[in-house]
Amino acid sequence: MANQEDQFKKIIAHAKEYGFVFQSSEIYDGLSAVYDYGQNGAELKRNIREYWWKAMVQMHENIVGIDSAIFMHPLIWKASGHVDAFNDPMIDNKDSKKRYRADVLVEDHIAKLEAKISKEVEKAAKRFGEAFDEQQFRETNPRVLENLKKIEEIKNRLYPAMDQNDMEGIKKLIEDLEIVDPISGSKNWTDVRQFNLMFSTQMGSTAEGASNIYLRPETAQGIFVNFLNVQKTGRMKIPFGIAQTGKAFRNEIVARQFIFRMREFEQMEMQFFVRPGTEMEWFRYWKEARMKWHTNTGIPSVKYRFHDHEKLAHYANAATDIEFDFPMGFKELEGIHSRTDFDLGAHEKLSGKKLRFFDSETNESYVPYVVETSIGLDRMFLAMLSNAYTEEKLEDGSERIVMKLPAFLAPTKIAIFPLTKKDGLPEKAREIMDELKMDFMCFYEEKDTIGKRYRRHDAIGTPYCITIDHQTLEDNTVTIRERDTMNQERVPVSSIASIVSENLKVTW
Ligand code: GAP
What separation in Å is there between the alpha carbon of 450 and the centre of ligand 1? Predict the structure, then answer.
């Protein structure tokens, strides 16, 4: 655990030192759970967004992209259920003055019981070696069974209490489990209260005429309310999808773990409109397609897993998370939800406008069902950053930090170094850069030794460094050095583009 925390701290420090992520408003001591992306972070984020857009929009003839406004009519959030139900139960500890999500305190308690079970299993596996039958052990070991029973009992109290808005029931559960504040160690809790996560502000110039509006807590509703506009103007036939990326805002009670849970973040969402009754088929399709999108980056599949929801929201008939092995363990990276006709149906009702698809072949009109894929861009960024961060001991005893980012996502693709600042080498280097910079993000550097320049680019994940030396002036060849292997090769200038392009390809 301490190791994981140390690793996470190192990644956060590295992200700041190398211009990936800064605390927002840092010179004013920062703003909690809000972050800025620096020069390298903005590029990495842009590349992830582009990878998503290509996979979803460019690669699917029946998916189109839109860009809806952040401000929307307040009734949209009434229809979607966010005004009444986008709440988290919160509780304060009177001694530490810290605020927590009450359900998360209980879930953390469950996680501790689960960790105890895993420990028992691990110990037994060591003891019995090859002969160990994990399933039998889990089904018969008294300590495992006792903890499983406890978990079951807790879930049987927590989930109904959450569904029924039973704040007293949640408080009683926290007391019965004797959950203590992780900071003060005290059990001195306030009552549990519901807290709406939407930020609101006023639109309009005069106090009397102003109306209360919300900053969108998800981009999805901008898609639902444009369903008919896009369907009609794009002459879309079911099944079809609408995709968009953009900012979302949530006043998270507990915003922690760096950019994992932020108050301002970016989502990449796609709503896929299908014929009722076919949604499970499409749910399975998108589960597989989205997992493929993740593993196509070259990151090993053991880093990902599905977590199917046991407890479904009232409007969903299937839901799963794609979880990633972050430095703090497996956590949700993306959600795939079969949302039935809940959203379009609710907007039909409240707006009084028909939001239906007319199928000219069967002559029937219906409210489509929706399968949604929703991923946080910032979470994907954190997944890429944490997976890439590598500390390496080299053969000569020295150390390097290298960001082993998938090459196509790297902020800079080619770093261009003249060996020295004289003899016409900078001019030649700039000439080469001019040829390449239209197609690749390049970076020119002439300061410090080549070794130091390599290290700086290892630290930001640049897949290729090119050195221009005196031989370049004679035969138009350069040394190209690959980031992960550190192999160096002498190649003609004319082949740089094809070598780099080959490595930037994503296989589908
Ligand atoms: N339209 C469905 C929806 O918004 P969600 O599970 O609430 O579903 C989808 O959010 C994704 O957005 C999550 O899987 C996560 O990647 C990202 N996300 C949600 N809240 C976030 C936050 N506070 N900070 C960063 N990313 C967040």
Answer: 42
Count of CB atoms within 10 A of residue 436's CB? 18
Decide if 422 is inside a domain. Answer: yes
Give me the DSSP letters along 468-488. E-HHHHHH-EEEEEETTT--E
Encode pLDDT of 374-390 as tens digits: 999 999 999 999 999 99
Residue type, 67: D
Residues 240 and 369 both lie in one domain: yes
Q: Tell me the CATH number at 117.
A: 3.30.40.230
Minimum-distance ligand 1 atom for the alpha carbon of 337 = 2
Domain-located, residue 123: yes
Tell me the residue range of the domain where 381 lies: 39-81+198-393
Residue stretches of the chain with pLDDT short of 70: 1-2, 206-207, 508
Q: Give the span between the Cα atoms of 406 and 462, in whole angstroms.
A: 10
Q: Which residues line ligand 1 at a C-beta cut-off of 6 Å?
A: 218, 220, 250, 252, 261-262, 265, 267, 269, 332-335, 372, 374-376, 378-379
Coil, helix or strand at residue 173: helix
Whether residues 62 and 134 fall in one domain:
no
What is the distance in A from the centroid of ligand 1 to the CA of 470? Answer: 53
Q: Looking at the structure, do residues 215 and 250 belong to the same domain, yes or no?
A: yes
Give the tens place of pLDDT for each residue, 190-199. Answer: 999 999 999 9
Q: What is the pTM of this model?
A: 0.90
